[in-house]
Design goal:
By secondary structure, the chain is α+β, with helices and mostly antiparallel strands. It folds into two domains: 106 residues, no CATH class; 63 residues, no CATH class. Helices cover 33% and strands 19% of the residues. The strands form four sheets. It has a three-stranded mixed beta sheet with strand order 7-9-8. Strands 1-2 form a two-stranded antiparallel sheet. A two-stranded antiparallel sheet has the order 3-4. α5 packs antiparallel against α6. The chain is globular. The chain starts with 7 loop residues before the first helix and ends with a strand.
Length: 183
């Protein structure tokens, strides 16, 4: 029996639905970028099958038709390393886990397009680097009044910095002299 491969259109859809990033939540690596030749682009992304493309393949489901196995519903966009990883340990990387990754990656891409905060950002301050988990900052921002700063100190996100929700200090993301962070 032949492998039920994705066509180029399906591969393109899978990559675009996650913003050309690996769908593994521990590796949201960008999978395309510039080549040294201006008419070319690099691609380290792979359209991987969630349910195997052929009998004996990782997570193969005999109930699926060839058309279902070739559809974007059965695909996930990954970097080459993660594609190899999921196929080498199919017991750990189950179909249900991969469907979860796919949904999370698509949601992340949608939130990025809608300018919602996603993931984390690295803010460089003169004295040190602080990694700020934006999901945690969103949680902190929902806390009422003075609870914001106490929550920030307790979680250790902003040691010595005051959390502010208004743009101050000439519109900077942080202000070292006043030790404040603008979220």
């Amino acid at each position: 029996m032949a492998r039920d491969e994705f066509d180029q259109k399906t591969k393109d859809i899978l990559s675009r639905r996650v913003g050309n990033r690996c769908s593994n939540p521990n590796c949201p690596k960008l999978t395309s970028g510039p080549h040294t030749e201006s008419a070319k682009a690099l691609n380290i992304g792979v359209a991987a099958h969630i349910s195997g493309a052929a009998p004996g393949g990782p997570r193969f489901d005999p109930v699926l038709t060839p058309e279902q196995r070739k559809s974007s519903d059965n695909g996930i966009w990954l970097c080459q390393n993660c594609a190899k990883l999921i196929d080498n340990d199919a017991d750990r990387y189950t179909a249900s886990l991969l469907f979860q990754w796919k949904e999370q990656a698509e949601d992340r891409a949608r939130r990025e397009i809608e300018n919602q905060r996603v993931g984390y950002t690295l803010i460089r301050t003169p004295d040190k680097q602080m990694e700020i988990a934006l999901a945690s900052l969103d949680r902190i921002r929902r806390e009422s009044g003075t609870g914001e700063y106490r929550m920030a100190q307790r979680t250790g996100l902003l040691p010595g910095y005051t959390l502010r929700t208004q743009r101050t200090c000439n519109g900077a993301k942080y202000c070292h002299s006043h030790r404040c962070l603008i979220t």
